[in-house]
Amino acid sequence: MSSEFLGRALIVVPAWNEEAAVGETVREILDSVPNADVLVVDDGSTDLTAEAAKAAGALVLELPFNLGVGGAMRAGFRYAVRHGYDAAVQVDADGQHNPAEVPDLLAKLHEADIVIGARFAEKGDYQVRGPRKWAMVVLSKVLSWVAKTRLTDTTSGFKATGKRALPLFAENYPVEYLGDTIESLVIAVRAGCTITQVPAHMRPRRAGTPSHSPWKSTVYLGRAGFALLLALIRRWDVSVRASTPRVPTPTATVERGAA
Amino acid sequence: MSAYVVAIIGSILILLGIMELLRRRQLSEKYAVLWLVVGVLLLILTIFPGLLGTVSVAAGIEVPSNLLFFTAIVFLIGVALHLSWELSRLEDETRKLAEDLAILRLDVEEQGKRLRSPKDSGH
Ligand SMILES: Nc1nc2c(ncn2[C@@H]2O[C@H](COP(=O)(O)OP(=O)(O)O)[C@@H](O)[C@H]2O)c(=O)[nH]1
Ligand SMILES: [Mg+2]
């Protein structure tokens, strides 16, 4: 892991009603990855998430209504492609992903197109039990087989996406429930991208409540299975060459006009 | 006998059609489950026509086809209601998009004006 990432990175933070946590998360990211830009995607929050993120120094995309994590991330990928970033990293607003580990993920982008920050139970406080745990184990087994590499935590949101996969995700990132973790990996493999993982520590969330409550875990098992099945039977005519055309952004035009 | 074969082929075609729509990503996950269940039930009822009679007897309905009509009508009313609800939500979302777009357009125009006029640009 001696190689350092030299391109421009965009840290995308999906946030939904996270006013209590997002500010500190943004400040922490800016401290740990000083030369990256932070883009918070405020997904129709009803609290002061956008204000807190702006005050902390992030760029903020305010969606007019809730699009879900997948929709928010796709907005982030589109922003990254349009503004010529070399990589995008998802970091959750609740502080569960440690920004200090972002450089590890970025450094690994030399070896693969997508790097997953895999949560290993023995290395942090992150614990899951019951049906959700079984679902995660089976998903990891199947997706490891699909990706032809050992992946131990395929439902992790902590992911770095390199330059080759960015246009693919800007166009095709799944917006359905669980699609952002399971189906996105399948799409990437189908398009010829490579996937790898680095160990990551999972921290307890900083404030607020998780969107998944324990009693939903059995439903989660069923839906995860169905999402996986769908991902595997769906036809993806994709290749990493398929890209969103880079259009001049309004800001770029204005700057030229002013010069 | 040939009607039986035609019915089975028809049901299989419907199921295949649903699968193909799914595979081409023309159906999102939430509708996929619904139509897959319908397709499979249809196929089961066609393969075992006696099943409908057994269920109607259990439900206390004299003419088996009435059970089929009744469930079909209830199901279709449910689907229509759900689609109306989705449509209303979509309409509301498009409106919000149009409103936000108008606000953005004004913001961009104002910014452009400020940059063009030399009077205001000195700040
Ligand atoms: N954009 C967006 N973000 C969301 C939504 N739901 C949850 N999040 C964010 O996704 C991250 C993970 O959510 P969390 O509830 O902690 O899920 P968990 O960590 O998988 O249990 C947090 O940063 C949330 O703010 C949503 O509907 N839209
Ligand atoms: Mg979380």
TrEMBL record, chain A:
SUPFAM superfamilies in UniProt: Nucleotide-diphospho-sugar transferases
TM regions (residue ranges): none
A Pfam family that the UniProt record links to this protein: Glycos_transf_2
Keywords per UniProt: Transferase
GO MF terms held by the record: transferase activity
Record keyword Transferase present: yes
UniProt key word Transferase: yes
CDD domains: DPM_DPG-synthase_like
Glycosyltransferase 2-like domain sequence ranges: 11-135
Recorded family membership: Belongs to the glycosyltransferase 2 family.
Protein name: Glycosyl transferase family 2
Species annotation: Lentzea pudingi
Lineage per the UniProt record: Bacteria, Bacillati, Actinomycetota, Actinomycetes, Pseudonocardiales
TrEMBL record, chain B:
Keyword Transmembrane listed: yes
Spans through the membrane: 6-22, 34-61, 67-85
Record key words, sorted: Membrane, Transmembrane, Transmembrane helix
InterPro entries registered for this protein in UniProt: DUF2304
UniProt keyword annotation of Membrane present: yes
Protein name from the UniProt record: DUF2304 domain-containing protein
